[in-house]
């Protein structure tokens, strides 16, 4: 039976241990807590001599044990000791805009739920070269997996090959037919997505008149796929509508979208519609339309963050658009990356936590979960309230 000195020492060390674990800077999962407790208890009995029963001696011994426990905790949180903790980084098109700020929330949440380190890397501009450098840095850092929302699928192929050589799986989003990735995650049917926007544009334009198209850049795979689908649908179903210029790669920038829309309004006096893919396009083009007093003459349709575009939607300048949930997309990237790391089979009809049933195309390496959300006057408040 332990004597009073042992019991006091155990209590004293346990109090120190709990204080350390209550520190907000220290996050410990349950298995690690239990392991540390066992090792601390062992350390206490190792430090204590059977002859050390006096309180004064016990205080000194328990101080030594507490120091040992603290050293143990510190070692548990240094980079080498945490090597077994998966680290997943997601490189997005550009940081600091509402769409990817919302996506970051999903990335972090999925990281916490899966007990791993997950975070977002956002380049300062929508520059393919910056994305390539970011992936190179993450390879050098030896992260466990990398997620990417590509600006230029082709430009990323060489660095994706380097990641593969380093044993780091790449999960992409918005990049069907991407080379060098393990899986690509899609939240929509891309052909349908482009056609939905064109149907709305045609409806509001009365199925006739001149229009232009914005995309994120001329190298963003998905935006150009949507534009291709929309334009093809227009040519087949709305022959009285006319695309009057090549598509503009400006829709990841409010300022560039504003300037391009302003110039197009001057260059094409009969312009009747603007279709934009890229979350900043409706904001910039909407401001230009409003400033030029063209709200009743130029129809604007496109996807944007509801919280960012709410005012323009309610004013009737942005007529409509379709999106999916960026937090859900961010969470899906992390969840699928974790499944790849755990070697969990990814099969058609599987259930992805938080998203539901997915269709899986192993040949094209595409995981698809249809989650389309419509933006208009009737939905924008509700969507904005969700943080989108």
Task: Report what the structure shows.
The protein has 388 residues and is α/β, with parallel strands linked by helices. 49% of the residues lie in helices and 16% in strands. The protein contains 13 helices and 16 strands. A seven-stranded mixed beta sheet has the order 2-1-3-4-5-15-14, sandwiched between helices. Strands 6, 7, 8, 9, 10, 11 and 16 form a seven-stranded mixed beta sheet that branches. The longest helix is centred in the first third of the chain and has 22 residues, at 55-76. The N and C termini lie far apart (61 Å). Residues 1-7, 22-31 and 43-83 have low confidence and may be disordered.
First-last Cα distance: 61 Å
Total number of strands: 16
Which spans of ≥5 residues are poorly predicted at pLDDT below 50? Answer: 1-7, 22-31, 43-83
The outline comes out as elongated
Main sheet: strands, sense, barrel: 7 strands, mixed
Find the structural class using helix and strand composition: alpha/beta
Main traits of this protein?
single chain, 388 residues, alpha/beta, seven-stranded mixed sheet, 49% helix, 16% strand, disordered N terminus
Task: Sum this structure up briefly.
Helix content is 49%, strand content 16%. Helix 1 packs antiparallel against helix 2, helix 4 packs parallel to helix 12 and helix 5 runs parallel beside helix 6.
């Amino acid at each position: 039976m332990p004597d009073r000195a042992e019991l006091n020492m155990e209590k004293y060390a346990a109090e120190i241990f709990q204080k350390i674990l209550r520190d907000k800077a220290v996050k410990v999962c349950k298995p690690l807590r239990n392991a540390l407790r066992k090792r601390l208890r062992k350390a206490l009995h190792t430090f204590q001599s059977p002859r050390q029963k006096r309180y004064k001696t016990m205080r000194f011994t328990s101080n030594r044990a507490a120091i040992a426990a603290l050293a143990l905790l510190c070692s548990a949180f240094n980079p080498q000791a945490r090597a077994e903790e998966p680290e997943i980084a997601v490189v997005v098109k550009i940081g600091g805009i509402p769409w990817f700020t919302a996506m970051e929330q999903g990335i972090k949440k999925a990281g916490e739920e899966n007990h791993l380190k997950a975070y977002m890397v956002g380049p300062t501009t929508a520059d393919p070269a910056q994305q390539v450098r970011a992936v190179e840095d993450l390879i050098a850092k030896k992260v466990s997996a990398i997620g990417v929302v590509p600006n230029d699928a082709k430009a990323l192929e060489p660095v994706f090959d380097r990641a593969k050589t380093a044993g780091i799986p790449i999960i992409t989003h918005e990049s069907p037919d991407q080379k060098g990735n393990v899986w690509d995650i899609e939240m929509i049917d891309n052909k349908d997505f482009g056609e939905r926007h064109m149907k709305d544009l045609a409806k509001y334009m009365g199925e006739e008149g001149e229009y232009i198209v914005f995309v994120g850049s001329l190298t963003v795979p998905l935006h150009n796929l949507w534009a291709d689908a929309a334009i093809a649908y227009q040519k087949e179903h709305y022959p009285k509508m006319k695309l009057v210029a090549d598509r503009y790669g400006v829709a990841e920038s409010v300022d560039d979208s504003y300037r391009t829309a302003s110039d197009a309004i001057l260059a094409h006096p009969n312009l009747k519609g603007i279709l934009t893919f890229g979350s900043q396009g409706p904001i910039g083009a909407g401001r230009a339309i409003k400033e030029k007093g063209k709200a009743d003459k130029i129809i604007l349709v496109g996807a944007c963050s509801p919280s960012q575009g709410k005012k323009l939607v309610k004013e009737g300048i942005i007529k409509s658009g379709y999106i999916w949930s960026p937090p859900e997309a961010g969470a899906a990237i992390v969840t699928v990356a974790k499944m790849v790391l755990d070697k969990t089979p990814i099969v058609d009809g599987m259930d992805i936590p938080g998203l539901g049933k997915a269709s899986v195309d192993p040949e094209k390496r595409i995981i698809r979960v249809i989650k389309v959300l419509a933006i208009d006057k009737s939905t924008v408040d509700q969507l904005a309230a969700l943080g989108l």
